[in-house]
Amino acid sequence: MSDKLKLLYIDDERDNLLGFKASFRLQYQIFVAVNTEEATAILQQNPDIRVVFCDQRMPGKTGVAYFEEIKVQFPLPIRILITAFTDIDVVIKAINGGNIFRYIRKPWIEVDIISAIEEANKFYLANSMLHIKNKELQEAYKELDKFAYNVSHDLRSPLSSILAAVDSMIQMSDLAEIREMLTLIENSIFKQEDYIAGMHDYYKSQQGTLKIDEIDFNLLAEELKALFHIYVNTNKINFKIEVRQNTLYYSDEHLIKMILNNLITNAIKYQKKEFEDKRISVDMQADDLEAVITISDTGIGIPESHYEEIFNLFSKVNNHGTGSGIGLYNVKNALNKLGGHMEVHSVVGEGTDFKLTIPNKK
After folding, report:
1. 42 part of a folded domain
2. Where does a domain end: 46, 76, 108?
3. Would 50 be classed as within a structural domain?
4. CATH no. for residue 322?
5. CA distances to 107, 197, 220, 235, 283 from 300, in Å
6. Does any domain span residue 199?
7. Cα torsion 308, 359, 297, 197: sign
8. Is there a domain that residue 340 lies in?
9. pLDDT tens, 310-360?
């Protein structure tokens, strides 16, 4: 494939096309068309054409009219009109209207054409970058709208549940009913707490550069056991952590803790409630190259069709537990920042394995 800058020249006089192609074929990749219909087909087939030259006096349609016509469908190619001196008023209007970049008088000379191409290419590059940034900005606005809507909804939902429970309790005298409402309030508070923690992790994972420190996975394992002690005991879960580290390991400790906290929290949340043999195991291995961490549980499992979806922001593939739809999104973002990757294996009704591979930054 040629790396030459691509040009299109439109002229109903074939001799002009042949002369143009012969003059500039060594410097540029030249496409030619004898009418506007042929030119449009070439533009559709070659979206990377950067500069379009067109003769003003074309049968059936002037060059200015054609440039105005294609401005919306093909906004990026830079339009240059080739015209006689008698058309100068039309040319000025076309330049002012933004239909053409500049014009070249007939008969053209090579130095003028080359100068026009170089100027047009610079403008094309700047315009293309602006076009890309505008598209990125529009996508960012869409994401921001979605983000704002979900934040508003997920912050208000637990509060609405709490208010409804309080209103009901005011009318109650039965102690059993009041306890039931208190349980509902407690669950709503946990959901709110989980959501706020997820938002904090989201914010932290988006900010700044990595802070690389030495990580002792044995110490990290003790922290995790202490952190989740109450949760696993309350839910009667057999929680085990095994560590095999035979070398110094360096990474961003905050991000690794955030990843593990999210995955272990999910493993607790999505256990089968009535299942007697609930288990969560964490296996952490580290060597000179990488750390490999596997979190396994005996939970409800994830359908294979949802493996990609679960990492999307605010994604909730089921209504089990108090998930915010932020945790796994944060995990994926953190892994990307660390240069790591994750494999998921799950069987619905049996459990899920998350296997993380994170490079050693030493």
Report:
1. yes
2. 108
3. yes
4. 3.30.565.10
5. 77, 23, 27, 15, 20
6. no
7. negative
8. yes
9. 766 555 555 444 444 567 888 888 898 899 999 999 999 999 999 999 999
CA distance 240 to 29: 65
The per-residue pLDDT for range 126-152, each reduced to its tens digit, is 888 887 788 878 876 776 666 565 556
Residue ranges making up the domain that contains 229: 209-359
Cis peptide before 75 (omega within 30 of 0): no
Write out the chain in H/E/C secondary structure: CCCCCEEEEECCCHHHHHHHHHHHCCCCEEEEECCHHHHHHHHHHCCCCCEEEEECCCCCCCHHHHHHHHCCCCCCCEEEEEECHHHHHHHHHHHHCCCCCEEEECCCCHHHHHHHHHHHHHHHHHHHHHHHHHHHHHHHHHHHHHHHHHHHHHHHHHHHHHHHHHHHHHCCCCHHHHHHHHHHHHHHHHHHHHHHHHHHHHHHHHCCCCCEEECCHHHHHHHHHHHHHHHHHHCCEEEEEEEEECCCCEEEHHHHHHHHHHHHHHHHHCECCCCCCEEEEEEEEECCCEEEEEEEECECCCCHHHCCHHHCCCCCCCCCCCCCCCHHHHHHHHHHHHCCEEEEEEECCCEEEEEEEEECCC
